[in-house]
């Protein structure tokens, strides 16, 4: 198994600099590229991300990116306003597939985004990135334009925590990486399995179920492995990722959702209770608070009638 992973790392891991934007534009040959930013109260960063993509990847007669959509999942700040002013098309989560009530969660937004985008390649980018580089898009999209057999590409990067390099990604190191190494060792070579920056062929995305919450990245990666095989997956080094870090309790809830997503894929039999109890200190000592763990998954998009009709049209 280790040798297979090592061969995959040598064959399917690249630096972003290997594929300049000009080369990728020439390789498009009619393919359309959509970029999706899921956003919830990200007014501090979303406009700058959109501006970089518009300026570096969408300008001129031959753009790399054809469509840039921000999906607002209920922001109470000016996220939508700032994104639109910077040049993105903004769509509210609840306006997509209104017959089906939306549930909170990142995976829900990504799943619905397939209904309001048209690209053959869909690139997801988190909206809380600081010092954003266009390589997060061009790097992940690149192999899909130049390697016909590649279908799913994750970004890899260093994640600093404050001034400490490599100390971000705590849920990755404590939960996701052990799960993958133990249960899906072919995926052990992914540097950032939970990273929110990745590009996928639509023809694959529409075949995959989407966990509605924070388990979406793990779920998509595992299901892609089983659907198209390891050699169809790749990763690209895009440098450094800076973003807003969550507090420890939020990370605990993320970890529970990710474990639940893995558990669903390991067995459809008995499951642990889908709740997580955490503790907060109050005036009278520690107080328990119990949170539901995301348990719902959306079906493959190609099973949705509205999507099938849209694609047929």
Structure description:
With 313 residues, the chain is an alpha/beta fold. It has a single domain, classed as Spore Coat Polysaccharide Biosynthesis Protein SpsA, Chain A (Alpha-Beta Complex), CATH 3.90.550. 37% of the residues lie in helices and 21% in strands. The chain contains 11 helices and 14 strands. Strands 1-10-7-8-5-2-3-4 form an 8-stranded mixed beta sheet, sandwiched between helices. Helix 3 runs parallel beside helix 4 (79-86) and helix 7 packs parallel to helix 10. The longest helix is centred in the last third of the chain and has 19 residues, at 248-266. The radius of gyration is 19 Å and the shape is globular. The N and C termini lie far apart (45 Å). 43% of the residues are buried. The model has no long low-confidence stretch (mean pLDDT 89). This is Glucosyl-3-phosphoglycerate synthase. Residues 34-130 form the Glycosyltransferase 2-like domain. Its cofactor is Mg(2+); Mn(2+). Keywords: Glycosyltransferase, Magnesium, Transferase. Its EC number is 2.4.1.266.
Architecture (CATH level 2) name: Alpha-Beta Complex
Order of helices and strands: HEHEHEHEHEEHEHEHEHEEHEEEH
Report strand %: 15-25%
Q: Within the largest sheet, what's the order of strands?
A: 1-10-7-8-5-2-3-4
Sheet of most strands: 8 strands, mixed
Gap between N and C termini: 45 Å
Number of helices: 11
Describe the protein's topology:
Blueprint: H1 2-12, E1 13-15, H2 21-27, E2 33-39, H3 46-57, E3 67-72, H4 79-86, E4 89-92, H5 106-113, E5 121-124, E6 129-130, H6 135-146, E7 152-158, H7 170-183, E8 198-201, H8 202-205, E9 210-211, H9 216-228, E10 233-240, E11 242-243, H10 248-266, E12 275-282, E13 285-292, E14 297-298, H11 305-312
Parallel strand pairs: 1-10, 2-3, 2-5, 3-4, 7-10
Antiparallel strand pairs: 5-8, 6-11, 7-8, 9-14, 12-13
